[in-house]
Write a structure and sequence with these properties.
With about 350 residues, the chain is of the alpha+beta class. The protein has 2 domains: about 200 residues, Fructose-1,6-Bisphosphatase, subunit A, domain 1 (Fructose-1,6-Bisphosphatase, Chain A, domain 1), CATH 3.30.540.10; about 120 residues, 3-Layer(aba) Sandwich (D-Maltodextrin-Binding Protein, domain 2), CATH 3.40.190. It contains 10 helices and 14 strands. It has a 7-stranded mixed beta sheet with strand order 3-4-5-6-7-8-9, sandwiched between helices. A 5-stranded mixed beta sheet has the order 11-10-12-14-13, sandwiched between helices.
């Protein structure tokens, strides 16, 4: 069941019916993508992976998920423009991986041929210069995926530099807050949001099932923080200094991917910090678009570490921003002030 929402704060030119249509298509795409990713992860010991030029790993699931998402979008929205993380170049030079991707895709797209899959992957080649487009991170948190940990399928629609639709599948994230992040859930979750319409969550195994609305935590205890598992994604030393200065209790909860936005949005943690590891690092839009909107629509505040809103109007990178602070209203201003005081 798709909830109809009132879009009262967004500057989008799309009517409410148009936004709900985009959300419905996005839910279908991410739901099918989660199914594909889960099946690939179940066969992880035999799943082929290779290294891209930046030495980051890419797996069968990355290509298969981007292919499925692109195909689902374009079959319902023929004029789709998509900014994706992957391209077919590596696939075309690796017959074994291509065969595995086609096999994975056929779980939800039985008639897919080699040419179809390659073309679908390359639908993600838009350069983020149009006034409106989708962006996808097919497997956000690939190293978490490889560890059987947390990862996300993240899809967002950007119009005039504003994220107006976000869908984030977290296939291993449990609805049970007591379940450790390193214990994959058998169902998983899908978070979704429309600008001005609130944030909702539903089982990943039923993308169009009735959803639950999420709102920012009213928790009044000491700050609870979640961080990236990979130290290369955030300066954990600087984060520890901020956390200590603010008196946050306990060890930070660490999990991979944009799932952290969902963890804060649902009140399981109060803050997610992503502090720059070097001065010239630029965040990619696909790493934050869906998660940012989901958190904001739950009532969470999301800015860069200088307190500036994330600027999605500058192409594929958040070139006007440094790092990320995603936190409940109770803590956000204090975190940014402490970062400034520590001269991070």
């Amino acid at each position: 069941m798709l909830r109809t929402v009132l879009n009262t704060s967004s500057s989008t030119t799309l009517p409410i019916s148009g936004l709900n249509r985009l959300l419905s298509v996005g839910l279908t795409a991410v739901g099918d993508a989660c199914r594909v990713a889960r099946n690939v992860q179940a066969r992880l010991e035999t799943t082929r992976k290779i290294l891209k030029s930046d030495k980051s790993p890419v797996t069968v699931a990355d290509f298969a998920v981007q292919s499925v998402v692109a195909q689902r979008l374009v079959e319902s929205l023929p004029d789709t423009l998509l900014v994706g993380e992957e391209s077919s170049g590596l696939l075309r030079s690796d017959a074994e991986m291509l065969a595995a991707v086609i096999h994975a895709v056929r779980e939800v797209w039985p008639e897919a041929r080699e040419s179809d899959v390659l073309a679908a992957v390359d639908l993600g080649n838009h350069d983020a210069t149009a006034s409106a487009y989708w962006t996808v991170d097919p497997i956000d948190g690939t190293k978490g995926f490889l560890r059987h940990g947390q990862y996300a399928v993240s899809l967002a629609y950007i119009e005039a530099g504003e994220v107006v639709v976000g869908v984030m599948g977290c296939p291993n994230l449990s609805a049970d807050f007591d379940r450790p992040f390193d214990q994959p859930d058998p169902s998983g979750l899908i978070f979704s949001a429309i600008a001005g319409g609130g944030c909702f969550v539903r089982p990943a195994s039923a993308a169009h099932a009735p959803s639950q609305r999420l709102e920012a935590s009213a928790y009044q205890g000491a700050m609870r923080v979640c961080e990236s598992v990979e130290s290369g994604h955030s300066n954990q030393g600087d984060a520890a200094r901020v956390i200590a200065a603010l008196g946050a209790s306990g060890a930070p909860a660490r999990l991979d991917s944009q799932c952290k936005y969902g963890v804060v949005a649902r009140g399981q943690a109060d803050a997610y910090l992503r502090l720059p590891t070097r001065g010239d690092y630029v965040e990619n839009i696909w790493d934050h678009a869906a998660g940012m909107l989901i958190a904001v629509e739950a009532g969470v505040v999301v800015t860069d570490i200088d307190g500036k809103p994330l600027d999605f109007s500058r192409g594929m990178g958040l070139t006007a921003n440094r790092g990320i602070v995603c936190a409940s209203p109770r803590f956000h201003e204090r975190i940014v002030a402490q970062i400034r005081a520590l001269e991070i």
